[in-house]
Write a structure and sequence with these properties.
The chain has 113 residues and is mostly helical. It contains 5 helices and no strands. Helix 1 crosses helix 2 (29-42). It is 73% helix and 0% strand. It has helices spanning 12-24, 29-42, 45-57, 60-90, 99-110.
Length: 113
Amino acid sequence: MTGRTVSAYTDELTARRIAQLAKAEDRSPAEIAAAALRLYISLPTHAHRAFRQIEAMESPAVIDSVQRAMTRALIGEAYEAARKQAVAQMQTSGEDDSEEAILAEAVRLTSPQ
């Protein structure tokens, strides 16, 4: 994918955390920053405003609560997508799935050759 370079200034702690995350995920700091920017710009304007208001509060408890809520939402959506994908893969293609057919296939699979 062709791209364009953008730059950002951040504090030392954030820069260290980006470097640590990049190393842990075997990605470059630029890839981490690009993913963060894609997420932020995909949010609606009112979410940007709410995020800036929360940052301005400088309340660790509120920021922690937001981070936990976002984490729960992301993990929940990833789980639901994986569940739907698994269900779709488990759909039969019109094969005989009667009790007798299932038992016969289980016997065939577990019988010595």
